[in-house]
Automatic annotation (TrEMBL):
GO MF entry, a single one: glycogen phosphorylase activity
GO biological process terms, semicolon-separated: glycogen catabolic process
Protein's gene: GlyP_0
InterPro entries: Glycg_phsphrylas, Glyco_trans_35, Pyridoxal_P_attach_site
Described purpose of this protein according to its UniProt entry: Allosteric enzyme that catalyzes the rate-limiting step in glycogen catabolism, the phosphorolytic cleavage of glycogen to produce glucose-1-phosphate, and plays a central role in maintaining cellular and organismal glucose homeostasis.
Protein family per UniProt: Belongs to the glycogen phosphorylase family.
Requisite cofactors: pyridoxal 5'-phosphate
Gene Ontology CC, one term: cytoplasm
Keyword set, alphabetical order: Carbohydrate metabolism, Glycogen metabolism, Glycosyltransferase, Phosphoprotein, Pyridoxal phosphate, Transferase
E.C. number: 2.4.1.1
Reactions the enzyme catalyzes: [(1->4)-alpha-D-glucosyl](n) + phosphate = [(1->4)-alpha-D-glucosyl](n-1) + alpha-D-glucose 1-phosphate
Pfam hit, one: Phosphorylase
Domain of life according to the entry: Eukaryota
UniProt name for this protein: Alpha-1,4 glucan phosphorylase
Length: 499
């Protein structure tokens, strides 16, 4: 608007029309702390002209709201671009919705939550703007390049068309009854696990058992992603082994990796706790190679490419309603890991594609989380009623995992007991029971591998090619061009040279 009005000399109305046709808004989170609200005092200092323009946009916008909902002052206040309570701020998401011809979430459930919850009033007013575009991943990087063993096995059966038409993977479905191919899938996974085991031994000095289940959670560290819930499962397994040292347990190597934002203290405490638990578990001779815990440092795309092809189990355990989509979940699915997850983000659509029997679902639904919020969440009720949970929390609290600094994790326990926005204790029991089912199935390698194959064969929807076509057709009004474009290193034909 600043360029079109101040520099190009367009009328306000014409400039606004161009802006709205030019902009589309993709929302990526519903967590309130991540939705930007810029202090007016800051804008006054560094972008004074933009602030004037925002006020003018808001004036026109609120006139339309008032016309549509005469006298509805609550709605007008709620839909304003300017927040007046407390420090005066500009709500950037509201500005995006008002200034865009399309608004979308990144998984079906997320797009629904946007419409009925955080942006409800805007949906009432502009229903035609709201869309869904489920995220995707590129099969070139996340299968062809990172997992050549599996990629070759797939190509041997169905050719190479899947590289650009990932839906073709459905052709693998009948092969669940081909014991030779099931064996091939198992061998590919085993090779990838051996390679990773060797790397881990070199880098961390931890000897991992390559026939143990590789149970992996890699993603940014955040309370809503619930790495702490995974950690509580680890402690529970440890306590069970210690209580029954001669018992048989399905061996697991549990890997957790990810970075914390520099200023996010709680996330850094979560990393410290996982490392502390790993130190105790990995050095306990009673445990042996039945349980190993590894914190993967410096998690990034190049490390993801090594780790994901070696995963047996993918952990996608966010509180329902908090993970907009997730894409890590799709990478694991495409590489033949089974998922343990909540009905959140794209996990729901993954389940729809592969069928309920081929994924381990646990925990509250979005509706159940909302019901719990209405009822009031009391973590202590779960603590009192679940002895394994109580033992685990008492150990963290008393310094069992941090004997040199017994108070180190008191803040984490305090959050879990009294300020937990993500309801870890409410999903603990269901998570542990689901993990027991995972262990049971892992003892039947053929059944496991069949489900892994059905995961791979059902992952076609999650190609970013599909996502990008949808953005093109349904938001930008463009059709794909199949004309071959030059590669980045090739000279591009300019208008001059084509004349
Ligand atoms: C795919 C990817 C993510 C996203 O993972 P989620 O589990 O969806 O949060 C984060 N970091 C890296 C390095 C990735 O490759």
């Amino acid at each position: 608007m600043r360029i079109l009005v101040d520099i190009e000399g367009l009328t306000w109305a014409r400039a606004w029309e161009v802006c709205v046709k030019t902009c589309a808004y993709t929302n990526h989170t519903v967590l309130p702390e991540a939705l930007e609200r810029w202090p007016v005092s800051m804008l006054e200092h560094i972008l004074p002209r933009h602030l004037q323009i925002i006020y003018e946009i808001n004036h026109h916008h609120l006139q339309e709201v008032a016309k549509r909902y005469p006298g509805d002052m609550d709605r007008i206040r709620n839909m304003s671009l300017v927040e007046e309570h407390g420090e005066k701020r500009i709500n950037m998401a509201h500005l995006c919705i008002v200034g865009s011809h399309a608004v979308n979430g990144v998984a079906a459930i997320h797009s629904e939550i946007i419409k009925r919850d955080i942006f409800k009033n805007f949906y009432d007013m502009f229903p035609e703007r709201f869309q869904n575009k489920t995220n995707g991943i590129t099969p070139r990087r996340w299968l062809l390049l990172c997992n050549p063993t599996l990629a070759d096995a797939v190509a041997e059966k169905i050719g190479e068309d899947w590289v650009v038409h990932l839906d073709q993977l459905t052709k693998l479905k009948p092969l669940v009854n081909d014991s030779g191919f099931i064996r091939t899938i198992q061998v590919a996974k085993q090779e990838n696990k051996m390679r990773l085991a060797k790397q881990l031994e070199q880098e961390y000095g931890v000897k991992v058992n390559p026939s143990s289940m590789f149970d992996i959670q890699v993603k940014r560290i955040h309370e809503y992603k619930r790495q702490l819930l995974n950690c509580m499962h680890i402690i529970t397994l440890y306590n069970r082994i210690k209580a029954n040292p001669s018992g048989t347990f399905v061996p697991r190597t549990i890997m957790i990796g990810g970075k914390a934002a520099p200023g996010y203290h709680t996330a850094k405490q979560i990393i410290r706790l996982i490392c502390a638990v790993a130190r105790v578990v990995n050095n306990d001779p009673i445990v042996g190679d039945r349980l190993k815990v590894i914190y993967l440092e410096n998690y990034r795309v190049t490390l993801a490419e090594q780790i994901i092809p070696a995963a047996d189990l993918s952990e996608q355990i966010s509180t329902a309603g908090t993970e907009a989509s997730g894409t890590g979940n799709m990478k694991f699915m495409l590489n033949g890991a089974l998922t343990i997850g909540t009905l959140d983000g794209a996990n729901i659509e993954m389940m729809e594609e592969m069928g309920r029997d081929n994924i381990f679902i646990f925990g509250m639904t979005v509706e159940e989380v909302e019901e719990l919020k209405r009822r009031g969440y009391n973590a202590r009720d779960y603590y009192n009623n679940l002895p394994e949970l109580r033992q685990c929390i008492d150990q963290i609290d008393s310094g069992f995992f941090s004997p040199n600094n017994p108070d180190q994790f008191k803040d984490l326990v305090n959050i879990l007991m009294y300020h937990d926005r993500f309801f870890l204790f409410a999903d603990y029991e269901s998570y542990i029971k689901c993990q027991d089912e995972v262990a049971k199935l892992y003892q039947k390698p053929n059944e496991w591998a069949k489900k892994a194959l059905l995961n791979i064969a059902s992952s076609g929807k999650f190609s970013s090619d599909r996502t990008i076509s949808e953005y093109g057709r349904e938001i930008w009004g463009v059709e794909p061009s199949w004309e071959k474009l030059p590669a980045p290193h090739e000279p591009r034909e300019t208008e001059e040279s084509s004349k």
